[in-house]
Write a structure and sequence with these properties.
This protein has three helices and four strands, in the order E-E-H-E-H-H-E. With 116 residues, it is of the alpha+beta class. It is extended, with a radius of gyration of 18 Å.
Amino acid sequence: MFEILSYPLSEHDPGWPGNFKMKTEPSTLISKGEVANQYIITLHNHFGSHMDGAKHFNDKGPRLSELPLDTFIYNQPLLLDIPKTFGEKVFDSDLRPLAEKIKKADLLMIRSLVGI
C-alpha cells in the first residue's frame, strides 16, 4: 500500500515565512527552436513537504545525505492527519488522544495541511 505524503508543488504555495517561494523559469523551449523543454526550478529547502536533519538544528550534526540508508527504513510508520491552517501549530493536546498508536510507531509523520 502506498500513502501520498506530499502534494504537488506550485509557485503559488506558501513557503516558510520570510523565504522566497518556488520559481520556475524556462531554460530551453521547443517553441524557440530548441530540441527540448527544460526548466530551472529554484526552491528553498523549507518549501513543501521535507525532512530536516540534525545539521539543520546543530551545526555539528550529520546531514541527511551522510546517514546510512537503513536510518530511513521503518517497520511501524504512523501517518497522522491533523488538519491545521497555514501557520497554526500542532499541540500536545492534538497528539495525546493518539498516544497508544504513537508509542507503537518507529516513525511519526504529521500531515497538517490536509487537502492541499
